[in-house]
Amino acid sequence: MLKRTFLIVVIVLALVLSACGGRQAKTCDDLADQTIDLMQDLIDDVEAEVGDMTVEELIATGGDLPSVDQFEKEAAKIDERAVELSCTQSDITAGVAQRVDQLEAHTPIGEFLIKAISSGGL
Asked: Does residue 58 sit within a domain?
């Protein structure tokens, strides 16, 4: 009985990890997908954090937001994996550029972030 319970816990944990992004990129294309997903998360989180703040007010904060800190941590993981896969920054940038039309914004701040991503500013 104890072995069965342990096995069920291990299976559930594996499913949760895979559903939470536990998958590891195997190609530069996979990394571009993960990067665009991360950028969408950033847009969503920033929009939620700043509410009706204007772009000028956001800039005045210096970007000191929890979502930006989280983005930087996750981006560092993607950068590490890129090195492991021998993906250049150009590879990732080109992949993101191909996917930027997938990004969605619901506020002027979100639109500002998409423009920054499109121009290579993020």
From this structure: yes
Q: Show pLDDT as tens, one digit a residue, over the chain (122 residues).
A: 433 333 233 333 333 333 344 578 899 999 999 999 999 999 999 999 998 888 888 888 786 888 988 999 999 999 999 999 999 999 999 999 999 999 999 999 999 999 998 887 66
Q: Global pTM?
A: 0.75
Give the distance, in angstroms, between the CA of residue 115 and the centroid of all CA atoms in the same chain.
Answer: 16
Q: Name the DSSP letter for residue 106.
A: S
**Position 2 in a domain:** no
Domain count, the chain: 1
Instruction: Tell me which DSSP letter residue 63 carries.
Output: T
The answer to whether position 1 is within a domain reads: no
On whether residue 31 sits in a domain, the answer given is: yes
**Containing structural domain, residue 101:** 24-118
Cα 109 to Cα 90: distance, rounded to the nearest angstrom? 26
Quote the CA–CA distance of 102 and 110 in Å, as a whole number.
Answer: 13
- How far is it, in rounded angstroms, from Cα 68 to Cα 50? 12
